[in-house]
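testing teh design pipeline on a random one, pls ignore if ur not involved
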């Protein structure tokens, strides 16, 4: 079966990289908004009997989901045999329980919706916290890729005497995997989230690491408050300027500016979401799965 790659607007660079590395040609679709804000989608490539890969990183998902849904519907109605959604960043993974009565557990509702119009999902380091596996919420086969190996390579090449730091217990999975891969020390801190932009971090005794470069590693940088608070504590403890690495750089609102103003050493992200801080290319990871 021949394969075509479609990209939602904003995903063109990664789509081109995947196309170059796999030899799969790009499919074409016109996607735009009517003046009233409704979404227009027109398929321009024959997809009969094709396997179709749809690349859509789901950063700011509410603005993209209608286009993604309509594209997948018209692909199916036009004869596509299999639709694989490649969402390097997968949205709606964090509201995974009811913290207050009446709250929508959006991770489950979102997964149900996607499972209706895609046949398969490939994603990178989704925020699995209270849920252990994607199959708890997705009804389609999901391939979960991990950026730990390519991040480890980047750290090895670019940071002298690194000390890996995870800001909270959730980050232990990435931090320990990378540290063990590189045989370098790591510590995991304790975080209490008091509000969307308010976190409290407790840092253990780090006096043994004053010569090291702290490399703060998290899956998501959203408001950046987790990184900022951690960095400020590490500075107080006398450590070198922090290298901040996020797999997914969401940088909500003033996050990037605030992180820069806090005086961190470097801000590095993977290109799961296009951003000026992208320094780690995840396309080879995806290509291995295709
Ligand atoms: C939390 O569960 C995640 O792993 C990140 O630590 C969190 O999303 C970072 O958020 P923020 O940048 O808003 O502090």
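output:
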């Amino acid at each position: 079966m021949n394969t075509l790659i479609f990209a939602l607007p904003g995903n063109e660079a990664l789509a081109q990289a995947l196309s170059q590395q796999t030899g799969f040609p790009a499919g074409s679709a016109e996607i735009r908004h009517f003046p009233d804000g409704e979404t227009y989608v027109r398929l321009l490539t024959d997809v009969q009997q094709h396997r179709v890969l749809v690349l859509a990183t789901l950063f700011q998902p509410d603005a993209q989901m209608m286009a993604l849904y309509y594209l997948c519907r018209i692909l199916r109605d036009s004869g596509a045999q299999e639709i694989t959604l490649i969402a390097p960043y997968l949205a709606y993974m964090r509201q995974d329980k009811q913290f207050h009565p009446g709250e929508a557990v959006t991770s489950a509702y979102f997964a149900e919706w996607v499972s209706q119009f895609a046949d398969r999902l490939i994603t990178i380091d989704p925020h699995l916290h209270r849920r252990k596996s994607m199959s708890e919420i997705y009804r389609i086969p999901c391939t979960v890729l991990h950026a730990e190996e390519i991040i480890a390579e980047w750290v090895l090449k670019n940071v002298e005497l690194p000390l890996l730091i995870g800001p909270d217990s959730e980050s232990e999975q990435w931090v320990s995997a990378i540290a063990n891969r590189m045989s370098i020390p790591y510590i995991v801190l304790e975080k209490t989230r008091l509000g969307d932009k308010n976190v409290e971090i407790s840092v253990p005794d780090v006096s043994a690491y004053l010569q090291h470069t702290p490399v703060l590693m998290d899956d998501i940088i959203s408001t950046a408050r987790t990184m900022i608070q951690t960095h400020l504590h590490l500075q107080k403890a006398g450590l070198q300027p922090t290298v901040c690495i996020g797999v997914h750089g969401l940088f909500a609102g003033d996050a990037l500016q605030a992180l820069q103003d806090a005086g961190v050493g470097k801000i590095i992200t993977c290109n799961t979401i296009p951003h000026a801080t992208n320094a780690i290319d995840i396309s080879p990871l995806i290509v291995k799965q295709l």
